[in-house]
Amino acid sequence: MKHTLFKALVCIVLSFSCYAQSDVSFGIKGGLNLTFFKVEVANFGTNTETETGYYGGVFVDFIIDESFSIQPEVLYIGLNDFKFINAPIYINYEVASNFDLMVGPSLNYFFDFFSNKFKVRADICAAYNITPSIDFHTKYTIGFEEIATNGLFIGIGLRI
Which domains does the chain have, with CATH numbers? Predict the structure, then answer.
């Protein structure tokens, strides 16, 4: 199942990249991940614990007009022995010069859960474009279910 989902996500990103448009950009991103769990002796409860990890992946930015674009991403996230794929699909809006806000659903596949490995979460992201090729971004991911964790991501993106 995990290989099928990964292949599907790769196919989606590649199919978007096959459009013969000049307003498409590609990039890589990565950084620090802080994930907030509610754990109490293997049951999800009231105690909040934070795990620090990393993330890295690729993105495609489909520019619609001067201040609006759609940006799907595929990210690999590692938290100690806990690994998953995060695939947000952002609506990106430039609110000020070099400052973007992004919002959208986040499709997630968790390798380490015994059941319900697929989760849908919501992301909100802010990015500051340091140069046309480099951005600093932070995003917050909200889990809709008790077992779906919340996360804070802080990183750098590079347009290729």
Answer: 2-159 (2.40.160.20)
